[in-house]
């Protein structure tokens, strides 16, 4: 191919996670019964348990826990697990079951997160309110309900990642995602050169038709849409940091000025000249 590619870039994972597909199947608050238990099963969905009161046990893989009030547990899909109520005061917990996919990969195969996080006491009412809203909107039928559900789940997951600290991407275990990472890095490094779907598909060792579908599942855009958006982002930086005029910036990307100006306005809502004036 004659053009090199560098290693994975964090920005790709930000974009991929932002475009992940999520679905909440159930959400509620439950005071579990003494008979609440199951042993060594592997669910095909994720579970979040926010413990507010009581005692019991959870087992995730080979790790065993006795959760305490104020702890938020993530029991990932595809992992063997067990749970049960202890004698005495059983758990009271907010909980939900959900799936989350980054491209074609389940989120737990992409992110290396802890089994639980300790929620600071000052943050617990806010998190409990998020779970309550999640349960409320999950039971509604308005067109806006699905957006509300997505918003609340993402808010809870974001809090989990922030409280977990040091979350890492499992790039070695995400083969398909690693290929997309490679492709997007290549695009970023060659934005000023002609780029074709066939060339990008060959880089990922995919058939072009399959590549287009996989690329859109991962980024939310077709390859051409993504390339054009990145070129506009690069152009915005050039307008903000250099004295290059519109024609010179268009030339950087091998575009006719009329096409470049139309693309820039379609993407930003401003003509290049308006954007530069607004920036200054």
UniProtKB/TrEMBL annotation:
The keyword Transcription applies. It holds the Pfam family AraC_binding. PROSITE patterns: HTH_ARAC_FAMILY_2 (PS01124). GO terms for molecular function: DNA-binding transcription factor activity; sequence-specific DNA binding. InterPro entries: AraC-bd, Homeodomain-like_sf, HTH-like, HTH_AraC, RmlC-like_jellyroll. Residues 181-278 form the HTH araC/xylS-type domain. SUPFAM superfamilies: Homeodomain-like, Regulatory protein AraC. It comes from the Bacteria. Keywords: DNA-binding, Transcription, Transcription regulation. PANTHER family: ARAC-FAMILY TRANSCRIPTIONAL REGULATOR (PTHR43280), HTH-TYPE TRANSCRIPTIONAL ACTIVATOR RHAS (PTHR43280:SF28). This is AraC family transcriptional regulator. It comes from Paenibacillus antri.
């Amino acid at each position: 191919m004659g053009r090199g590619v560098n290693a994975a870039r964090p920005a790709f994972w930000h974009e991929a996670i932002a475009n992940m597909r999520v679905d909440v199947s159930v959400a509620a608050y439950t005071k579990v019964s003494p008979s609440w238990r199951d042993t060594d099963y592997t669910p095909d969905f994720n579970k979040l348990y926010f413990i507010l009161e009581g005692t019991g046990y959870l087992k995730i893989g080979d790790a065993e826990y006795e959760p305490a009030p104020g702890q938020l547990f993530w029991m990932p899909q595809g992992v063997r697990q067990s749970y049960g109520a202890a004698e005495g005061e059983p758990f009271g917990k907010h909980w939900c079951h959900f799936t989350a996919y980054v491209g074609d990969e389940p989120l737990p195969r992409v992110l290396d997160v802890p089994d639980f996080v300790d929620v600071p006491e000052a943050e617990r009412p806010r998190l409990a309110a998020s779970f309550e809203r999640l349960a409320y909107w999950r039971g509604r039928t308005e067109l806006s309900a699905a957006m509300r559900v997505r918003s609340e789940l993402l808010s809870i997951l974001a809090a989990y990642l922030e409280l977990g600290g040091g979350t890492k991407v499992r790039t070695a275990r995400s083969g398909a995602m690693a290929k997309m990472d490679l492709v997007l890095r290549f695009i970023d490094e060659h934005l000023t050169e002609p780029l074709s779907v066939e060339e990008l598909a060959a880089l990922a060792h995919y058939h072009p038709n399959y590549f287009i579908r996989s690329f859109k599942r991962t980024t939310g855009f077709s390859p051409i849409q993504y390339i054009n958006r990145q070129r506009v982002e690069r152009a915005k930086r050039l307008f903000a940091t250099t004295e290059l005029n519109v024609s010179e910036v268009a030339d950087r990307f091998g575009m006719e000025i009329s096409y470049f100006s139309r693309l820039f306005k379609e993407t930003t809502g401003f003509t290049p000249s308006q954007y530069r004036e607004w920036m200054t």
